[in-house]
Specification:
With about 375 residues, the chain is an alpha/beta fold. It is built from 13 helices and 14 strands. Helix 5 packs across helix 6. The longest helix is centred in the N-terminal third of the chain and has 22 residues. It starts with a strand and ends with a strand.
Length: about 375
């Protein structure tokens, strides 16, 4: 396939409700789409980077700048070296380095090229991943932020709506001063609900005894209790909390190498794997293989994606569940948290969603919707001299 050009599309979409975590408030979802065009078709990818950066994740504006200055020129150079032929999806991620922005770029360009290849061959992503019988549908989970004023009543209202919609697992954000009481109220109301708690690195090693009290409320795991960088401290925290609550890592798992390191340090029993952060589908499968070997449970986490990025995660989650059953992933309909999803997503019914079976990764963004949202587009024609 001869490369014709690359288009970058930026759009900002408000969340339906502001989402508060221990490290900040999400009010708007900045989205970056990458469109790769060849003489045999085109493909789209969605970048997972959020509007606000974190200790390990660059903001979407930084990834966009790196796409303009680094990714597009690098793709053109690689294509020129091949006589104008676009690198395959298996090759394109290797064009990028190991910085956080590079990993996000590797993931979105891999997705765009994969989408184009799959459409050309008439395959869905699930077919390419060899998702087998019994995994055509998956249960969906949801994340719940810290309510305004730390209002337990508002928390119960939000979770009630999710349970009525069929969601079988809720990941609740916590922080110092908002943890045991909130979880106790949820467990009293929802005796059978699968509950996870996510601290976003807000606690310290000395808080292990306090957070061990979560075990009384049948919490399946405590996610990212400490800041992400120090795996030694996280291993010590896990030792101190003992068997009360399994420890899950998220932000600490910023690359396949970090996943392997976390396993070697015995810092977690559960891994939240996010393909956008890890560097794409293939990088996530490498990380997952290490988890399977170490008997570390896995679920696919989300970055509040639009329908295209979430569809990619859905197909990957189906494949990973086939290899080793894990926890329910962040696979709910983006229409539940975005004021507008330009891509669309499969219908979620009674807490289950069907893995897309149409050729490609997922639905492309709707051009009319992008226009109405005031998108910013930049086209880069491929030139070879």
């Amino acid at each position: 396939m001869r490369l014709i050009g690359v288009e970058l599309v930026r759009v900002d979409i408000p969340f339906r409700h502001r989402i508060r975590t221990a490290v900040g408030i999400h009010g708007e979802r900045g989205l970056l789409f990458v469109r790769v065009v060849t003489d045999q078709g085109e493909g789209w990818g969605e970048c997972g980077a959020l509007s606000e950066g974190t200790a390990v994740d660059p903001p979407v504006t930084a990834v966009y700048d790196a796409a303009v200055k680094v990714a597009v020129p690098r793709l053109f150079t690689a294509s020129a070296a091949r006589g104008g032929v676009l690198p395959s999806s298996g090759e394109v991620a290797k064009l990028f380095g190991t910085t956080p922005a590079d990993r996000y770029l590797a993931a979105v360009f891999e997705m765009a090229v994969s989408d184009m290849e799959l459409r050309a061959s008439g395959q869905s992503l699930a077919e390419w991943l060899e998702v087998g019988p019994g995994f055509e549908t998956l249960p969906v989970g949801a994340a719940v932020g810290i309510p305004e004023g730390r209002d337990v009543g508002l928390l119960l209202e939000e979770v009630t709506a999710l349970v009525v919609a069929g969601v079988g697992r809720v990941r609740v954000k916590i922080e110092p001063g908002w943890d045991i009481e909130a979880v106790a109220a949820l467990r009293e109301r929802f005796g059978a609900l699968v509950l996870q708690v996510d601290a976003n690195g807000a606690y310290r090693v000395g808080d292990a005894e306090h957070l061990a009290r979560l075990g009384a409320y049948d919490v399946v795991c405590l996610e990212q209790p400490l800041p992400p960088a120090d795996l030694v401290a996280l291993a010590e925290f896990r030792r101190r909390i003992g068997v009360a609550v399994p420890i899950c890592l998220d932000e600490s798992l910023s690359s396949p190498r970090r996943v392997i390191d976390a396993i070697q340090y015995e810092a977690c029993q559960v891994a939240c794997l996010k393909p956008a952060r890890l560097g794409g589908l293939r990088a996530t499968r490498v990380a997952h293989a290490a988890c399977v070997q170490a008997d570390v449970s896995v679920f696919i986490g989300g970055f509040f994606e639009a329908g295209l990025g979430r569809a990619s995660n859905l197909a990957l989650a189906a494949r990973l569940h086939q290899e080793m059953p894990g926890l329910v992933g962040d696979l709910g309909d983006p229409a539940g948290y975005l004021s507008e999803d330009p891509c669309g997503y499969p219908v979620v019914a009674d807490g289950w969603v069907r893995v897309p079976a149409s050729p490609g990764v997922g639905n492309w963004p709707d051009e009319v919707t992008l226009s109405e949202l005031g998108e910013d587009r930049q086209w880069f024609p491929a030139t070879y001299t």
